[in-house]
Amino acid sequence: xxxxxxxxxxxxxxxxxxxxxxxxxxxxxxxxxxxxxxxxxxxxxxxxxxxxxxxxxxxxxxxxxxxxxxxxxxxxxxxxxxxxxxxxxxxxxxxxxxxxxxxxxxxxxxxxxxxxxxxx
Length: 120
Fold this sequence. Notes:
By secondary structure, the chain is mainly α. It is 46% helix and 10% strand.
């Protein structure tokens, strides 16, 4: 059985974002529902713009981050900055391949999307 590049990208994006949510112990059922909602929206988006398939992981991460901000607050919180106001990491590039979590205040790459659990 062949899986289309679109489905491969969507499954990979789901797994990466769920890994990051799990590392922060926020992968509760309602939060996982945010991931699934984003996957549905991004499936339509990539069907309309197939060249965007390599951007799906970063977009799903941003969608979930936005949904969490509206419902619960900032996520993921920056593990780099030890002082000052707690702040969330950003996904960079906003629309591009190979998305990473970045602390814009310190100007450092923290981890690739899907690898927050490896940050010490």
